[in-house]
TrEMBL record:
GO biological process: glial cell-derived neurotrophic factor receptor signaling pathway; nervous system development
Key words of the record: Disulfide bond, Growth factor, Secreted, Signal
Entries under Pfam families matching the protein: TGF_beta
Name by which UniProt lists this protein: Neurturin
CDD domains: TGF_beta_Neurturin
Record SMART domains: TGFB
Subcellular compartments: Secreted
Xref: PROSITE patterns: TGF_BETA_2
Chain's role: Growth factor that supports the survival of sympathetic neurons in culture. May regulate the development and maintenance of the CNS. Involved in the development of the neural crest. Might control the size of non-neuronal cell population such as haemopoietic cells. Acts by binding to its coreceptor, GFRA2, leading to autophosphorylation and activation of the RET receptor. Heparan sulfate-binding is required for signaling.
Recorded family membership: Belongs to the TGF-beta family. GDNF subfamily.
Lineage, highest ranks first: Eukaryota, Metazoa, Chordata, Craniata, Vertebrata
Amino acid sequence: MFNGSRTYSPLPSSPSSSRASSSSSSSSSLPVAPRRSPRALRRHSSLLAQYSSLLESYTEGEIRQLIAALVERYSQAMNSGGHELPLFPRAGSRRKRARARHKPCALKELEVSVSELGLGYESDETVLFRYCSGTCEAAVRSYDLSLKSMRSRRRIKKEKVRARPCCRPLAYDDDVSFLDAYNRYYTVNELSAKECGCV
């Protein structure tokens, strides 16, 4: 009945099933079609084989460290109100990250000490540092598109050029004055942003 070139290996059977099949074959003259394992099961078994060989390459101490790290991440997720492992992010998390990357250019502020500004002054006085943050995707002009094309075609090679607008201060706040750790008086201009825009 089957005259193709494909061969099928018989499935292992128990003695009781072989007796049942022999008795049923005598009562029925229909041939039994060979059964094939589903592709999903084969894929699953190959993944299991890959993971088992991967785990065999680790030492017992490394496996314990891995399990401890997974348990710690799970407990942190449960304590923060999550109901699933952070190893498997929710479907919407990628969209949230994309939206976070494309926030429009805006003015933000941060209270910092003068020493943290990195200008070389030693002072514990705090100032309000305003800065510009965000993307400028909506402000892309023909210049930016053409410059990007010239860079991709390697017509512009050595010059350092930026092929998209950047969120930068358009105006600066008033000068900032302070006393350093040695009671010396300083004034710094153009320290904090007053207005931001895509330049």
